[in-house]
Structures are given as structure tokens and as C-alpha cells.
Design goal:
Layout: H1 2-31, H2 35-62, H3 70-80, H4 82-90, H5 99-115, H6 123-139, H7 144-155, H8 164-169, H9 172-178
Helix pairs in contact: 1-2, 2-3, 2-4, 5-6
Length: 190
């Protein structure tokens, strides 16, 4: 029973630290700070919290009294993902999780089984590419009709072998920089 209570206390401590990280991110989002400012703030405020989390993880991993179970699995998973998580604090454009992207791609993933072949064995992969580009257009607020018209006009002459630099320039996040008039304006809020 004491071991169970100790594990519960560990979970509460970790959840509080994680909550602190998300609260910082939300405050910065509300303030509309630049990526450069976010990088500085992450260095000053988020990294110390993350270092505390890492110290707890290392302590939990060494604590032989913690029973195998969900908490121990969570500790092991987080420890295994630590390098990727730490990278998030090194950059300003990344998010702490992929929830937004997962939400945006959910409809595509759910329909994947239904669309796997769509009449031809290569159609599934091509559909996945198109749906990915459409979702990227949604994320970057790119007008998809203007985007695909321009991109196809530029790719057709290369007959399936465009240069890599052209492909990079035509990704929605890069394309919109060269075509700012094709940003979809957000509707006015009532």
C-alpha cells in the first residue's frame, strides 16, 4: 500500500511539472511572442523544468521499489524519448506534442483503409500524398486551389523527376512565403 501511495505521489509531481510546461507555452501563445523570443524563454524557463523532470525520471529508474506497471512503463517510455523531447526545447517552432497535427490528419488516417487502392494499386500512396498536402495547406492557411494549380504547372515539365530544391520550394509552408496573396484569411469572429 505504501508503494502504491508513493507511486501516486510521483505521478502527481510529474503531472504538475508537465502542466507547468504547458502553461508556459499557452501564455506565450496568448502573448503572440516571436519564435526567437520563445526560444529564449524556453531556455530560461522551460529547460529548468525539463531538467527537473529528467532528474525525477533518472531517480525513478534507479528506484527498485517502484513496481512494474503503468507508472513504470510511462517512466521508461519518457526516458527512451528524452532526446527527442529535449530537441523541442532547442527550437522555437516545435510544439511539446503532436496533438494538433494528429487532429488535422485524423480524417485521413480513419479513411486510409477505405482509400487504400481506389481502383489502382498506386492510388493509395498518391492519395496519401495529396491528402497530406491538403492538410498542410490547411495548417499554413494556403488556398489549396491556387496551390495545386501553381505546383502542377511547375512540376509537369519535369515528368516525375523534379529537382529536390524545386520540391522543397513547393511545399506549402515554403510556397506560401513566395505567394502571400494566397493566404486564406480567418473568418471574422462574432
Amino acid at each position: 500500500m505504501l508503494i502504491l501511495l508513493a507511486s501516486f505521489q510521483h505521478v502527481k509531481e510529474m503531472m504538475k511539472l508537465i502542466s507547468d510546461l504547458y502553461e508556459l507555452e499557452e501564455a506565450w501563445d496568448r502573448a503572440g511572442i516571436s519564435n526567437a523570443a520563445r526560444k529564449i524563454k524556453r531556455s530560461e524557463q522551460s529547460k529548468p523544468i525539463a531538467a527537473t523532470i529528467k532528474a525525477h525520471l533518472d531517480g525513478f529508474a534507479a528506484d527498485l521499489t517502484i513496481p512494474n506497471g503503468e507508472f513504470y512503463e510511462a517512466v521508461r517510455y519518457t526516458a527512451n524519448q528524452w532526446a527527442a523531447l529535449w530537441e523541442c526545447f532547442e527550437h522555437a517552432h516545435t510544439r511539446l506534442d503532436t496533438n494538433l497535427l494528429e487532429f488535422k490528419f485524423r480524417a485521413t488516417k480513419i479513411g486510409a483503409k477505405n482509400w487504400i487502392f481506389i481502383g489502382h494499386r498506386d492510388a493509395g500512396e498518391k492519395s496519401a500524398i495529396i491528402y497530406t498536402l491538403l492538410n498542410c495547406c490547411r495548417i499554413y492557411r494556403v488556398n489549396p486551389q491556387a496551390y495545386f494549380q501553381d505546383v502542377l504547372d511547375k512540376l509537369i515539365p519535369y515528368d516525375y523527376r523534379p529537382p529536390a530544391e524545386l520540391v522543397d520550394a513547393l511545399l506549402p509552408e515554403n510556397w506560401i512565403q513566395a505567394n502571400p496573396s494566397n493566404v486564406i484569411k480567418e473568418p471574422a469572429r462574432a
